[in-house]
Amino acid sequence: MKTILTYGTFDLFHVGHVNLLRRARELGDRLIVAVSTDEFNLIEKNKTTIIPFEHRVAVLESCRYVDLVIAENSWKQKTEDIQKYQVDIFVMGDDWQGKFDELNEQCEVVYLPRTKQISSTAIKQAMQLLHQLDRELC
């Protein structure tokens, strides 16, 4: 049985997230998803989420490709999680290409292509622009 592990914020869950999770799950038998907590996002990643952590976890738990959802609280926990869950393949989007190559000592590292023209950041920017236009029209 092959265990796959991936990490992410998964804010504003969209088809790009679904594609990543589906392709990750196709690499093995069990997919574990580590979701960045609100505190970790704010303190370590310097970004705020629109959807609260508990809601993002609930969405991921309902996804048919996901077998287990855990919290991401630290950049350093990846090594511990790989050991704890006996991970065979660590997966990230290719926007992280090369950033986790040191984990190859513990498991296989795979960078999957992102879905073109979709991202939580792009959605947030579009929402902000629409809000700004709406305010200008009022």
3D structure, described in words:
The protein is an alpha/beta fold and 138 residues long. It has a single domain, classed as HUPs (Rossmann fold). Helix content is 38%, strand content 20%. The chain is built from five helices and five strands. A five-stranded parallel sheet has the order 3-2-1-4-5. Strand 1, helix 1 and strand 2 (30-36) form a beta-alpha-beta unit. The longest helix is centred in the C-terminal third of the chain and has 18 residues, at 120-137. The termini are far apart. The model has no long low-confidence stretch (mean pLDDT 92).
The count of strands amounts to 5
Please write the CATH class name: Alpha Beta
Helicity, as a percent range = 25-40%
Q: Which sequence of strands runs across the widest sheet?
A: 3-2-1-4-5
| Average of the residue pLDDT scores | 92
Q: In the CATH hierarchy, what is the architecture at level 2? A: 3-Layer(aba) Sandwich
CATH topology-level fold name: Rossmann fold
C-alpha end-to-end distance: 58 Å
Low-confidence stretches: none
Q: How many helices?
A: 5
